[in-house]
Amino acid sequence: VRAPLAEIVASGDELTLGRIANTNAAWLSRRLADLGFQVSRHTTLPDVLREYASEIRAAARRADLVILSGGLGPTVDDLTREAAARALGVPLVRDRRALAQIRRFFARRARTMPPTNERQADLPRGAALLPNPVGTAPGFAARAGRSLVAALPGVPGELFAMFDGPLRRLLEKRFPRRPAVATRELELIGLPESEVGRRLEGIASPQGNPRLSLMVRDAVVCVRLVARGRTKAEARRALGAVVKGVRAEFGDRVFGEGGQDPADVVAALLMRSKVTLALAESCTGGLVGHLLTNVAGVSRVLLEGLVTYSNASKARRLGVRRSTLARHGAVSRACAAEMAAGAARTARAAAALAITGVAGPGGGTRAKPVGLVFTAVRLRGRTTVEEHRIPGDRVAVKSRAARLALDHLRRRLLRIGS
Amino acid sequence: VRAPLAEIVASGDELTLGRIANTNAAWLSRRLADLGFQVSRHTTLPDVLREYASEIRAAARRADLVILSGGLGPTVDDLTREAAARALGVPLVRDRRALAQIRRFFARRARTMPPTNERQADLPRGAALLPNPVGTAPGFAARAGRSLVAALPGVPGELFAMFDGPLRRLLEKRFPRRPAVATRELELIGLPESEVGRRLEGIASPQGNPRLSLMVRDAVVCVRLVARGRTKAEARRALGAVVKGVRAEFGDRVFGEGGQDPADVVAALLMRSKVTLALAESCTGGLVGHLLTNVAGVSRVLLEGLVTYSNASKARRLGVRRSTLARHGAVSRACAAEMAAGAARTARAAAALAITGVAGPGGGTRAKPVGLVFTAVRLRGRTTVEEHRIPGDRVAVKSRAARLALDHLRRRLLRIGS
């Protein structure tokens, strides 16, 4: 079975180009791949009606499915309805059902609908309405020759909800013959991308089935595997063997699946095992606390965080000894260990995580260069310290240090059970 | 003078599509607009040689300048060299100067060059080398009909450095006749995009000169104005009047220029006025500390941050009264004020910023719904508290609350001088 080709087209000025349109394109690309489509192109062009319409026509000639993202708002800059109608060679007509939905949206919020919003109910003649369960902008889908053109709003939350709801049902009906696909994403930490790539060589490849792709983000390498088969079961079998191989090769370096951050995994482990945590951050400046508190419900286990940026603060708040600071400096194994012990003790927490390092660009020396970071974990009365050499600028060092610190804690927490 | 048209073309799989390629496209789009080009399209397509080559040819027919981003690495998946050579109808030839630069890159880092990296010195015959001052992948530029095709590496830092260095010099030589452009970006905070749009109506428009575009990110609205003229002075005059109008309309809601975060402005104000700061964060979980410590040198003024997530921590670390917590709750004006006062006192800091609120999704009540956030600033013995109602999910509430808190501090710091 051939995978139907899909293209994504969006418009915007140079300020928005590559921002929201591309968040959406990235998300759509993965979802479409998971549904057995092959994403063959993603185009962003300026808000010029003639060019937008002609690109929609060109895309509909090349691909089986064309998704338009954005430009369905109420203002004159929102050109998608006009461009699609022109590309399809039909006029816009006001859709009564769409208008009723927009009115209901405002009524539920006890707001009066501005007259400009009526435009949002205009659809190319003959198009099917895709109702918007979240916002005011309805979408639509229409036949263009042998292709299907579907328009979704640009607000990511609305686009995601409409793709997974009404559009997905439509795609399943209109494209009954697609390859069966099975997908897994494994997240690894603590290894450079080049080493991950090399060690994957005998296991999976970008040309194989499953098809391998890699992406690096902070200290995390994401390994994506997409398997195809005649049936879902066949695709899953092809995938399963390779996933097993990847896990065997990398062991506990694999920390998560499906786009997780180390913080998500650590928060889940803490909540499951009911271990309370205190943080002592220096060079990461609060980032570890921020990442952990992105997880709802973490307040049950996260007692407090101390961003002890100054030496005085390290001594006063955490009880780091002045002699330690004088002899070894703030960026040292000894200081990291005392920070973790002090955080656990003063917060009366079962576990503590401490980070100290040189984020740069200043402050580096020959002995302690920019990117040198120590992480310490205090758990069940035992403190472990790890040393990291992190490449990159200040923001990259902070970002990677936070993930490596969380991963250090994750590995300690895993060993509680065993 | 007509603005030369520019297109950006990149390749990638669905995992990387819309990620790095698009960071680069967004950056390039702005830089090209500032140089008097009109960015007419941005295309991302899969790593398939035939399609990539044919898209380069099509782009070179449509546009005066085609920038290829990415795909210049050493592996077989890096197709840009091959695709460009095929599009130009020339063979690849190994460039001695490029090879020498790659060897030097490894030599300086005392590493042996893997033989696969030699491929990076292959350029389409007749192309000019664009040296890479930062990494191993050299770029190149070549004539294709009436168009110029330039290839830059995909690593953002390398792409930025090469565009601003060798490519920019080449563009100035090859495109001597471009409209003169003057650009300004003003950042506003604390107003919804719709209100900013409405109040800008008599001042600037997307069709005017300067051309207006808006982008929202967290609680910040970015107002971008691009003016064109026959001369730089003419463009600057057209811009200046409108910038003055925007500033007059929005007063101190304008907090920065050119892509600044509120944290950048606050860090600069603190460092300039030598005011030391302590943070007391609850619902933001460390994000304010993280944002401030992204600014190099802030350690001179940022003494410490306390993420007092639990009530016990608020009482013990900051001296918030148990009676305040019992009577008003942790999310209250009174608690925010005591957190700020306690942070300043215990850290011996000249200023303190405190945040407490309901980030959601749980924990909201009728009286204290999700998104209710109090920020408090202690400065010169006086505490001010502001109340915010922030829409969005947990991550959005945290992100906006952090910016609104920093802006509260910014406005207090500005009034020190007056």
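The longest helix of chain B spans residues 394-417.
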